[in-house]
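Need a sequence for this fold. Nothing fancy.
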């Protein structure tokens, strides 16, 4: 991290960041990464790519994006907070799409001047990161795209838009023929917004290439996910989570190549019985709220307690990669409709009714041979807290042990969580 600071301080300063505060954040995250990831045993060799990604997260990757705005390339950086923002459209319009959600507490007191104290840590995190000027992704973004997935985000965007240019998408909360058409029109409006922002027309060729590029990334993630059905699991939940987190920030073509290399190694490890935990280690399926960098707390606890996370039904998991956009569209309109239909099928807790999410959890649990399901909601996330009741009923009816956890980004409850997770693993 020291070398990174020496090489990139000027770039961060030019972005308007608080360099001293940012370097303190980098040091803390770097120490956390070493403690959480580099102490794991028997990791696949291909995870060195993930280590390099993490080390360059705020440096080399940012320079790539910033440089893409120079030398006549005029690439616009589009930040987003949610899966419902189609990266295919951003790419087709010549933009660079990156995820912005914050997975750590920062500048909390300042954030609470703009949003209530009893706001979920993810929202409070991205507000604190912006107010503290410590996130190069936020600071480098030419436009930030939000979405009305929950009331907390929707109202926080009103404050956030005073600090950054914003565009907010209207996501339906029910699925029927009427909302399908409304959502398609929302996708058309977003495409027009991207064309206006980048000055580049979305064409049949550019959209087709973008769909193929993102689908290839999803196919690679699907391939990696399939290897986790093996016992012993060839890759940890921590490294799998980091792979998905990278998918929101890294160059898509480069990352796809790296994921396929990792999947190939994991396929070989699965075939030869090589794993990150002993055969018979308790296998856990995670479901619940997304986990943005550097929120690795719960997975670290589960796997340090001897369990292994073999699947994630969440936005930083299977929801990101399980469905592809059809690649046979003959017109831009057909492809935009296909994109709209694919994204409306993301089974987030915003939807009511939401039987599809429960079905996904149970299907994944059987496919990945899990011993138990841990359902986690960030504190003050009403949507996932409310769904935990129906999720518990469905999972236990399927004969699968279940535990619900509510937590935040702090370390204060780690001892309590460790005790609960240990008891759950022993019980199953």
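Here you go.
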């Amino acid at each position: 991290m020291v070398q990174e600071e020496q090489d990139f301080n000027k770039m961060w300063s030019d972005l308007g960041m608080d360099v001293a505060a940012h370097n303190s954040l980098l040091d803390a995250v770097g120490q956390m990464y070493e403690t959480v990831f580099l102490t794991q045993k028997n990791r696949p060799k291909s995870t060195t790519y993930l280590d390099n990604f993490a080390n360059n997260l705020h440096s080399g990757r940012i320079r790539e994006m910033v440089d893409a705005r120079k030398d006549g390339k005029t690439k616009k950086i589009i930040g987003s907070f949610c899966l419902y923002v189609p990266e295919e459209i951003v790419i087709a319009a010549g933009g660079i799409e990156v995820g912005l959600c914050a997975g750590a507490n920062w500048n909390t007191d300042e954030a609470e001047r703009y949003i209530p104290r009893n706001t979920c840590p993810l929202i409070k995190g991205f507000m604190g990161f912006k107010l503290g000027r410590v996130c190069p992704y936020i600071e480098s973004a030419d436009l930030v795209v939000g979405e009305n997935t929950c009331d907390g985000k929707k109202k926080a965007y009103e404050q956030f838009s005073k600090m950054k240019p914003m565009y907010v998408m209207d996501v339906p909360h029910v699925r029927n023929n009427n909302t399908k058409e409304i959502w398609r029109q929302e996708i058309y409006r977003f495409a027009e917004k991207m064309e206006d922002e980048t000055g580049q027309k979305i064409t049949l060729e550019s959209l087709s290439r973008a769909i193929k590029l993102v689908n290839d990334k999803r196919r690679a993630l699907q391939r990696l996910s399939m290897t986790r059905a093996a016992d012993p699991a060839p890759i940890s939940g921590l490294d799998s989570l980091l792979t998905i987190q990278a998918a929101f920030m890294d160059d898509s073509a480069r990352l796809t190549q790296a994921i396929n290399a990792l999947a190939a190694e994991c396929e070989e490890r699965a075939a030869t019985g090589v794993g990150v935990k002993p055969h018979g280690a308790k296998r856990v399926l995670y479901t619940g709220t997304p986990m943005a960098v550097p929120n690795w707390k719960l997975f670290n606890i589960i796997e340090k307690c001897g369990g292994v996370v073999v699947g994630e039904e969440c936005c930083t998991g299977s929801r990101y990669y399980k469905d592809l956009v059809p690649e046979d569209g003959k017109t831009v309109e057909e492809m935009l409709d296909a994109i709209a239909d694919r994204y409306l099928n993301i089974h987030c807790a915003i939807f009511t009714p939401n039987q599809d999410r429960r079905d996904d959890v149970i299907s994944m649990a059987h496919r990945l041979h899990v011993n138990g399901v841990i359902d986690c909601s960030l504190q003050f996330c009403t949507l996932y807290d409310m769904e935990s009741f129906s999720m518990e009923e469905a999972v236990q009816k399927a004969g699968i042990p279940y535990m619900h956890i509510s937590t935040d980004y702090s370390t204060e409850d780690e001892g309590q969580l460790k005790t609960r997770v240990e008891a759950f693993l022993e019980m199953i």
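For context: Residues 1-5 have pLDDT under 50 and may be disordered.
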